[in-house]
Specification:
Layout (H helix, E strand, L loop, with lengths): L20 E5 L12 E2 L5 H5 L28 E17 L2 E18 L4 E20 L3 H7 L2 E22 L3 E22 L7 E25 L4 E10 L2 E2 L4 E8 L5 E10 L5 E2 L2 E10 L3 E10 L14 E3 L2 E10 L14 E15 L2 E15 L6 E11 L8 E16 L8
Parallel strand pairs: 1-4
Antiparallel strand pairs: 2-5, 3-4, 3-21, 4-5, 5-6, 6-7, 7-8, 8-9, 8-11, 9-14, 10-13, 11-12, 14-15, 15-17, 16-18, 17-18, 18-19, 19-20, 20-21
Length: 430
């Protein structure tokens, strides 16, 4: 029997309808039950403030790690570092059940260094996906209840997939930049399913789990073509990136054991470690463009495609789930009144806005899961001109109240600290 999707998305110690609140690390969403969890929006507050665009963004003040080719747009003596975090506030509704949760997550740690003339190095850490869910449902079959008593089914999960990367980029001529990243995917995904019996038997709970250890290497290639026009007043940039798809290697540990009323294990039903983890991170293609007036404004658009349909995931009891191709369209704009104004601080602030539409890789109960939203952001100069506090807010919605789905509305706050310093400058005076 198919169950309404996550109809019992509530705290384990609560029951009935009404609003529930949860605090968590990483994420806490029913949709992270599927696949490798909730795919994190990539990019710093600079990118998110503009709807998430970055494929064709070139900026000598901030790090754009969405395209490795972009890091050649920099002062040849500059050291740059970007550290970010985010806070998510999600509000879920499923028929008459409402829930809310807050989650905190490290967003990125990225460093870029000059190498030689118009070439540069980039290295960093970025979360790719997060799992966080916890919900319960009772047994409703009267024959089973009459024989075994009240039974509750619990599902809960946690974990993440992250990437470490190192890359380089260089300019070829005056209008083309190319870059490459070497990527190490790693992490562990924990997915548990428990059955709890209310009868006073030796066995009170059967605990089952699947632990997925992620370990894989991949690569990402990027290019940007940029050319001035209209008497060099404006700059047109075309960008593209491609990430190689890879099996996420590692081990799968399947286990099941029984516990008594005190939680002590009384019997191991099975325990198996399989080194053939076939979960796959598919290839990703992204293209985009920007039109920019230097130090004044920029508009742009990105499109991203990822072929998740070729990836198979373990089934989810009671819910039809399959992976499908994901698409996203993002648009954004930024504006700086006068970045060199010495009298009025807010004229030096960069203001951003954007929007996006995403069709997720999740297809649940025969329906594609989509999300859309608007974003706002700004860069607040700190001390020196290129040091800044970057802020962004993402207001969106995914899912719906139709077809036994969960409607999820969210507000995500992102903060990044950008450090920009000059190295190897010989002082004029000792």
């Amino acid at each position: 029997m198919k169950l309404p999707l996550l109809a019992f998305f509530i705290l384990l110690l609560s029951s009935g309808a009404g609003a529930q609140t949860v605090d968590a690390l990483g994420t806490f969403t029913p949709y992270s039950l599927f696949g490798i969890g909730e795919i994190e929006k990539q990019g710093s507050a600079m990118n998110i403030g503009m709807g998430g665009i970055g494929v064709a963004v070139r900026n000598n003040r901030f790090i754009n790690y969405l395209n490795p080719a972009s890091i050649t747009e920099r002062d040849t003596l500059s050291f740059m570092m970007d550290v970010g975090m985010d806070i998510k506030n999600f509000y879920n509704k499923d028929n008459d059940v409402s829930s809310a949760y807050n989650a905190f997550n490290m967003r990125n740690i990225v460093i870029t260094l000059p190498i030689y003339k118009k070439s540069a190095l980039i290295l960093g850490f970025v979360p790719i996906s997060n799992i966080g869910y916890k919900f319960a449902s009772p047994e409703t079959d009267p024959l089973i209840v009459s024989k075994y008593g009240d039974i509750k089914y619990y599902k809960y999960g946690s974990g993440s997939v992250n990437k470490l990367f190192v890359g380089g980029a260089l300019n070829i001529g005056k209008k083309l930049a190319v870059g490459v990243e070497l990527i190490d995917y790693f992490g562990t995904l924990y997915k548990h399913s428990d059955v709890e019996f209310s009868s006073d038997n030796t066995i009170r709970t059967i605990v089952s789990g699947n632990d997925y250890t992620i370990s894989a290497f991949s690569a990402k290639f990027g290019a940007q073509f940029f050319t001035p026009f209209a008497n060099d007043k404006y700059l047109l940039t075309l960008g593209a990136t491609y990430s190689i798809g890879r099996d996420l290697g590692g081990d799968i540990t399947d286990y099941s054991y029984a516990t008594d009323a005190t939680g002590i294990s009384v019997d191991t039903l099975y325990h198996n470690v399989n080194s053939n983890n076939t979960i796959k991170m598919p290839g990703e293609l992204a293209v985009g463009f920007t039109i920019k007036r230097q130090n004044k404004w920029m508009v742009g658009m990105d499109y991203t495609y990822q072929a998740w349909k070729s990836t198979s995931f373990p089934p989810v009891r009671g819910v039809d789930f399959e992976a499908t191709a994901s698409h996203s369209l993002k648009v954004g704009v930024e504006y700086t009144p006068n970045m060199y104004d010495v009298r009025y601080y807010f004229k030096r602030v960069t203001y951003r806005a954007g929007g996006y539409y995403e069709k997720s890789y999740m297809k649940v109960n025969g329906k594609n899961l989509s999300a859309y939203g608007i974003t706002l952001g700004c860069s607040l100069p700190i001390s020196r001109l290129n040091n800044a506090l970057n802020l962004a807010v993402d207001l969106g919605e995914r899912g719906s109240l139709k077809d036994n789905m969960v409607r999820e509305r969210y507000v995500q706050f992102i903060i990044n600290v950008n450090i920009h310093d000059l190295w190897f400058i010989k002082p004029k005076y000792d």
